[in-house]
Amino acid sequence: MSAKDRPAYFMIQDAIEQARIQPGGTFVEASSGNTGLGIALIAKQLGYRSKIFVSKSCSKEKIKVLIQAGAEIEICENSNGLHDFHSTQFRAQSFAATHPNAYFTNQYYNTQNICAHYKTTGPEIWEQTQGRITHFLSGVGTGGTISGVGRFLKEKKADIRIWGVEPEGSILQHYLQYGKAPKEISPFDAIEGIGRNFVPGSFDPQPIDHIFQVQQSMTKLMARRYLAETGIPSGFSSAALLACLHTYHNEMALGPAHTVLLFFPDHGSRYVSKLYADSLDFKTASSTL
Ligand SMILES: Cc1ncc(COP(=O)(O)O)c(C=O)c1O
């Protein structure tokens, strides 16, 4: 399971309520894997089919669980947004438009994405920290999590800091600062789930104070260090938050008076081959010595 099951559930529920899909129809989504899995599992439970478009950077583990969940999958060249014919988003939209009783949930532009986090994740964080939270740190992909949680928390406590994290080379930091995309947009080292080279409609800059950029190499390093120190394999984008703390420690000026929440949306089991395969080999190797 992942935090993205929430938007998946809200988008499906809304589509059914609004009669945008009939029983037995196909839910279609473009996803780095997690939203797709939420859609696939919920669709199956409710008697619908699912067709998920993932990019070729999607981990083997996620593809495997998607197939197990009954999704039909198509692997696309990239997730560069609707304007790119080879993107997950274009292929998903095109599939839904050309197949009867197929509905594109479209997490990048669906209001239910932000709404799910505004109505569930935000209040849960507020309750579980008993209102003591002072900083919220979250990876940014579609923007749904940070926009929904940020909106809720700022309504509760206006001076709370809402901080995003994306890979170096992604454009949302620039968009937040200047209100437009940078002139030069180039490919960047991917951290699954976060970072974009277009601005999703579900990214609401309003509650966000700052977006930090981290290196993929530092993220991988931090994932392994966290595993070594805690025994917990974190997800890829979760490790990006650790890389962020490590890189911007001084600038963040955090102290004992602060309650900082790091939002880990999934877990390391989905990235064994990408992040931990060597350390597992190492463990296996050392146990056989
Ligand atoms: C692992 C992971 N981290 C972070 C995110 C980003 O969340 P959001 O799309 O709400 O910005 C996603 C989104 O799919 C994700 O799958």
Automatic annotation (TrEMBL):
Keywords: Pyridoxal phosphate
Cofactor requirement: pyridoxal 5'-phosphate
Top-level taxonomic group: Bacteria
Keyword Ligase among record annotations: no
SUPFAM superfamilies attached to this UniProt entry: Tryptophan synthase beta subunit-like PLP-dependent enzymes
Gene3D superfamilies xref list: 3.40.50.1100
The Tryptophan synthase beta chain-like PALP domain, residue ranges: 2-266
PANTHER family: CYSTATHIONINE BETA-SYNTHASE
Name assigned to this protein: Cystathionine beta-synthase
Taxonomic lineage from the root: Bacteria, Pseudomonadati, Bacteroidota, Sphingobacteriia, Sphingobacteriales
